[in-house]
Amino acid sequence: MARGKSSLWLIVLVLILVLIGAGAFYVWPHLEGEPPQIALATPLKHLGKSSSLTLKVSDQGRGLSWVRVTLVQEQRKSVLLNQTSEVLGAPLATLKLDIKPLEMGMRQGQATLVVEAGDRSWRSWMKGNMTVKEFQVMVDTTPPRLASLSQIIHINRGGAGLAVYTVNEADSQHGVRVGDLVFTGWSPWPQQPGTKLCYFAYPEDAPKDQAIELWAQDPAGNQAKLPLNVKVHWKNFRTDVINLNDAFMNKVAARFADQIPADRQTPLAKFLWINQDLRQKNNAKIHEASKPSQAYQLWQNTLERPLGARKAAFGDRREYVLDKKVVSRSVHLGQDLAHTERSPVKATASGMVRYAADMGIYGNCVILSHGQGVATLYGHLSELKVKAGDKVARGQVIGLSGMTGLALGDHLHFSVLVDGVFVQPTEWWDPHWVQDNVLLRFKEAGLPQPLPPAGK
Ligand SMILES: [Zn+2]
Fold first, then answer.
1. Which PANTHER family match (predicted)?
2. Which end of the chain is more exposed for a tag (fewer CB within 10 A), N or C?
């Protein structure tokens, strides 16, 4: 009997141990000690009138339980977000919130954004693990102040202009807006960091009466604008008619045979792909390649006019006619200059090589940046003498003229761009234009020419 009793005890003991084990097995993960993680999707340093914030809150263990976001400034405290049910159990929550500090009674100046999160762990008597993170932010709801230092600015349709102005908040982005086009400004006077300049264009394809204004945006996202006193001189561009035939179109297509999509079968379809699709793709790439720049003016006096007789001009409208119908149109965005075959092509001013490679219809092509968004382009070259990243001096040979790309005879295609927008090249090699539209802007603002500081 004694034996039977003791074995019963043993069974009970084993059962208790199994229960404790199973309990521990079940409870143990609930006691995890991994606290939630809190991060801002993008850094937030400033709060403007309305700033959006994206929070990423995660928990590796039993998942989130709650998240609370509070904005604190001196005695003021405002709860921006208090979420329990929405995040309950989630391993990761992406929380978006709009902060309007003025509506919350906050003042200009320093404030603290407090983000707290708890998880579903049973630690700390079921309270769970908790993380608190604080972010220092600056409440700034005042837009930057703009002032123009330029008198009346004259600009030609398709031409360029220069504005000189001040922005009172140092870290603002700024420039000139022409219609929807945004041009970036620069700060080239280290002694006067609030004084800025911006080259801008009245694009050859823009409609009449575009609004032209200065713009600025501070780090808190507050925006300011100020109309510029600009007089636009409208002019009409020439129209050339180009008669197409199969022989011509086949000749052109042969040059791009390896690039034309297979579904373009007829000579016309192939020609249209080159003249429209490829042209558009090339111009977009030129826009991107010519935009990167720096604050100082690397050119002086004028841009040097390349050698050669003018063949086609900037802004020429071209109509391509087949069987008495206009089948395609294009605009010529530079100056064609023909000199002797394979004649040396020189840098029009000092600069940095941004691009030196094939560029579709422009053939072998060099793009130079001369600072402050001003760039020049040299197309149809038979040979390249520089590579991207090189520094070049005015007059340095950068290539030899040729007929690569969409060119039927040896010539140089020369373009000038302002912040990625093609402009009239002839303005830049005319000393009178430079005097009236560039040097006068510095003179009337009482500023020196924004050349690179010595040693730069
Ligand atoms: Zn051309």
1. L-ALA--D-GLU ENDOPEPTIDASE, PEPTIDASE-RELATED
2. N
**What CATH number has the domain spanning 240-423?**
2.70.70.10
Question: 239 pLDDT exceeds 90?
Answer: yes
What are the start and end residues of each CATH 2.60.40.10 domain in the chain? 35-139, 142-236+425-456
Cα(76) to ligand 1 centroid in Å equals 65
Q: How confident is the model at residue 277 (pLDDT cuts 50, 70, 90)?
A: very high
Ligand 1 centroid distance, CA of 412 (Å): 7
The length of the chain in residues reads 456
Contact 185, 197 (CB under 8 A): yes
User: What's the CA-to-centroid distance between 321 and ligand 1, angstroms?
Assistant: 19
Q: 372 CA distance to ligand 1 centroid (A)?
A: 25
Give residue-wise pLDDT tens across range 360-404: 999 999 999 999 999 999 999 999 999 999 999 999 999 999 999
CATH of domain 35-139: 2.60.40.10
What is the predicted pLDDT for the residue at 317?
97
Q: Which two tokens stand for residue 9?
A: 């005890």
Q: How far is the CA of 359 from the centre of ligand 1 (A)?
A: 13
In angstroms, what is the span from residue 60 Cα to ligand 1's centroid? 61
Query: What is the distance in A from the centroid of ligand 1 to the CA of 24?
Result: 81
Q: What DSSP designation does 371 have?
A: S
Q: Measure 395 CA to ligand 1 centroid, in angstroms.
A: 21
CA-wise closest residue to 364 among 374, 356, 372: 356
Q: Which residues contact 30 (CB under 8 A, 6 or more apart)?
A: 62, 120, 121, 122
Strand partners, 109: 139
Q: What whole-number percentage of the chain has pLDDT above 70? A: 99
For the chain, give the mean pLDDT. Answer: 93
CA of 183 to the centre of ligand 1 (A): 25
266 pLDDT above the threshold of 90: yes
Rounded to the nearest whole angstrom, what is the distance from the C-alpha of residue 275 to the centroid of ligand 1? 13
**What is the residue whose two structure tokens read 């500081």?**
453
pLDDT digits (tens, 9 = 90+) for 29-66: 777 778 889 999 888 899 998 889 999 998 887 888 88
Distance 113 CA to ligand 1 centre (A): 57
Ligand 1 center to 380 CA (angstroms) = 8
pLDDT bracket for residue 456 (50, 70, 90): low
Token pair for 128: 């769970």
Output the CA 225–ligand 1 centroid distance in Å.
Answer: 37
Question: What is the predicted pLDDT for the residue at 303?
Answer: 97
Q: Give the domain 142-236+425-456 fold.
A: Immunoglobulin-like (2.60.40)
